[in-house]
Amino acid sequence: MQLRVGGQTYRVVSSASDEELQRLAAVVNQKLETVVPAGRPVTPQAMLLAAMALAHDLEQERARGARIAGRARDAFGRILQ
């Protein structure tokens, strides 16, 4: 399958479905739009910055999920007492 990310076309071989790959490529392109000024080429440094920004987003979401799970455990513990 071929994906277009940051104005470049990449051939990708994966067990993921074409729809999933397209969706993920769209997420990367959206993040690139936030780090690259309009009309500017997407450089390898911009791709790295977008990857770092996505990794940061993932860390924040995982931390949020852990906080929610912790609160749920505490609430269930109080209910069981």
Structure in words:
The mean pLDDT is 94. The protein starts with a strand and ends with a helix. It is mostly helical. The protein has helices at 18-35, 44-80; strands spanning 2-5, 8-11. 4% of the residues are buried. Helix 1 packs across helix 2. 68% of the residues lie in helices and 10% in strands.
Order of helices and strands: EEHH
Question: For the largest beta sheet, what order do the strands appear in spatially?
Answer: 1-2
- As a whole number of angstroms, the C-alpha radius of gyration is 18 Å
Can you give the mean pLDDT? 94
Q: Decide which structural class fits the backbone.
A: mainly alpha
User: What does the main sheet amount to?
Assistant: 2 strands, antiparallel
Q: Helical residue percent?
A: 55-70%
How much strand content do the residues show? 5-15%
Number of helices: 2
Shape: elongated
Q: How many DSSP-defined strands?
A: 2
**Poorly predicted sequence stretches spanning 5 or more consecutive residues:** none
What separation lies between the terminal Cα atoms? 55 Å
Summarize the helices and strands and which ones pair or pack:
Layout: E1 2-5, E2 8-11, H1 18-35, H2 44-80
